Hints:
- This protein is an alpha/beta fold and 220 residues long.
- Helix content is 35%, strand content 19%.
- It has helices at 16-25, 48-57, 75-81, 96-105, 151-164, 182-188, 197-200, 205-219; strands spanning 3-6, 31-36, 62-67, 85-89, 109-114, 132-136, 170-174, 192-195.
- The chain has an eight-stranded parallel sheet with strand order 1-8-7-6-5-4-3-2.
- Helix 2 packs parallel to helix 3 (75-81) and helix 6 (182-188) packs across helix 8 (205-219).
- The longest helix is centred in the C-terminal third of the chain and has 15 residues, at 205-219.
Amino acid sequence: MIEIAPSILSADFSRLGEEISTVEKAGASILHVDVMDGRFVPNITVGLPVVKAISRATRLPIDAHLMIVEPGQYAEKFVEAGARMVSIHIEADPNAHRTLSGIRSAGALAGIVINPATPLAALDEAIKFADYVLVMSVNPGFGGQEFIPESLDKVRRLRKMIDERDLKTRIEIDGGINADNIAEVTGAGAEIIVAGSAIFGAPDPAVALRELREATVLWV
Length: 220
């Protein structure tokens, strides 16, 4: 099943509750929250208090994408704050197995994230401990970037890796997804589609979300 996950990084934070309500009513499946610390990536966004507040304002599962150093110190705290999905970067955590196991033990789905320049080989051992893999199709740290075309081949190869190992791991993708390329992305094997500026940067986020879903259905 293809799911659309609006990313609040591109939302209007002065009326965040309203923005979340809009996409929830329009049929969003997941709410994607980018957590940046200004160290792992050159930007600072939101943290635990915001995730906790959002969890009280929506019925959508919160997908916390931790773009931070030492994610093992905080991953389980984001579950406690209300996140039902928590992902960590393979580049940031030498103890990924422990962190992923901790996320699962805390009651959430555990995800592993891979940057554009990181080879899939980096996931060779960790993938079996993850419920989903998030493929970054832009360099992390900022919204509104253009999709990196080579990401399609990466998703295809990841899909093959998962299928050959008979894993149930899902594929999520984040960065530069819009109505023009979502069909290719889902056709390559991605199942959870994160979209920020394509939704919240549109005149009507609800219409933009529906157009993304329709573009996916047309492909399928």
